């Protein structure tokens, strides 16, 4: 009786005309129903059993904010600083971010396991320690990316402008961290970190993609780089470039075969202009230039210049 009175009072106060109890029941039924006839019910039961172990996207947003501050403390940390204060900022950012990353990594491991195990916590600490050891190397790699942006864009006025304003640098910062986590065996949090950058920048880079040194995405919106893509050194992409798969091999039951190489290999010193689409396991030879809006499904030799038919 009290519950019904409270519901009616809420409706009167808000002017609502919906039935909350019916909506809650309906959403519960929808969660429990199998909407896809091909869905694996055993997998569904495992998902439900470990629902509390899923990583938190919000936590990973904060972790990445902390790691960016640790990597670039003078830009994403404090504005008035000394070398000592920078080091203190880095220490605090690392302690907070890496500790929380251990928890998120443990959740990823538990989510992909048949059952939770105390060993996941130990493994999570080992994974995060391995990532932490890589951070100085990643910082050097990002400096090369920043330099490539500065050298490659006549509109770039300063290093600070590139760090603050260039979506390609935000995307590659997230990617280089996500790629290390992907290699270390935590694919879900790696993918979430990539999607955080995707939502912010419009640049979609799968954490499995291998990207070399001095990488620059100019403008960036709409760039897609698939899971098994391999990109060499000093490669430059413009907005709307797709490095995708041409087709997907399937099993006898119709589900796609996962993990096979199916995306392009881009060798060193390649430039790919806006709107170009390169599909399949093809190789773009070193020093090549791919013009805007080109549709390419075949390999090209080094130093090729491919343009859309009808354009100079």
Ordered list of secondary-structure elements with their pairings:
Layout: H1 2-14, H2 20-32, H3 41-49, H4 57-71, H5 73-76, H6 83-112, H7 119-152, H8 159-165, H9 167-183, H10 187-201, E1 204-205, E2 210-211, E3 216-217, E4 224-225, E5 230-231, E6 236-237, E7 242-244, E8 265-266, E9 271-272, E10 277-279, E11 283-284, E12 289-290, E13 295-296, E14 305-306
Parallel strand pairs: 1-4, 2-5, 3-6, 4-7, 5-8, 6-9, 7-10, 8-11, 9-12, 10-13, 12-14
Helix pairs in contact: 4-6, 4-10, 6-7, 7-9, 9-10
Give a description of the structure:
The chain is of the alpha/beta class and 312 residues long. The chain has two domains: 51-202, serine acetyltransferase, domain 1, CATH 1.10.3130; 209-249 and 259-312, Hexapeptide repeat proteins (UDP N-Acetylglucosamine Acyltransferase, domain 1, 3 Solenoid). It is built from ten helices and 14 strands. The strands form three sheets. The protein has a five-stranded parallel beta sheet. Strands 3-6-9-12-14 form a five-stranded parallel beta sheet. The mean pLDDT is 88.
Helix content: 40-55%
| Biggest pleated sheet | 5 strands, parallel
Shape: globular
Strand content: 5-15%
Could you state the CATH homologous superfamily of the largest domain? serine acetyltransferase, domain 1
Poorly predicted ranges? none
Total helix count? 10
- Total number of strands: 14
CATH class wording of the largest domain: Mainly Alpha
Mean pLDDT: 88
Radius of gyration: 24 Å
Q: How far apart are the termini?
A: 78 Å
- How are the strands of the biggest sheet laid out side by side? 1-4-7-10-13
What is the total number of structural domains?
Answer: 2
The string of secondary-structure elements, in order, is: HHHHHHHHHHEEEEEEEEEEEEEE
In the CATH scheme, what's the topology name of the largest domain?
Answer: serine acetyltransferase, domain 1
Structural category is alpha/beta
Q: Which CATH-level-2 architecture of the largest domain?
A: Orthogonal Bundle
